[in-house]
Amino acid sequence: MIGSFVVDCKEGIVIARVWRGWTKLEDADGYEGHLKPELLPGLSKVAGFRGSYLLRRVVGEEVEFITVILWDSIEAVRAVAGEDYERAVIPEERKRYLKRFEERAAHFEVVAER
Fold this sequence. Notes:
The chain has 3 helices and 5 strands; from the N terminus they run βαββααββ.
């Protein structure tokens, strides 16, 4: 069980898309406010979506955000992110909050669950 959804690795591959971005301390709440209502719940309507996490931590003078989005397959990721599925997908209105961000997302097979 992860959060409020089940990841059943026995029924097939699950892909975790992991991406990081950083804000200034004073921009963190604004950035998080854009992500919570739109990005994570909005993805639940997309075919192949399995669940998501939004992680936040203060690191010195910055706030680091990590998104972990779980998918049924790389094909499901491509349907949302495009053919260059590793490219970060960041709407312009969110970029104003980001001090810096990873240009590419990493993708992992989920190989164990608890």
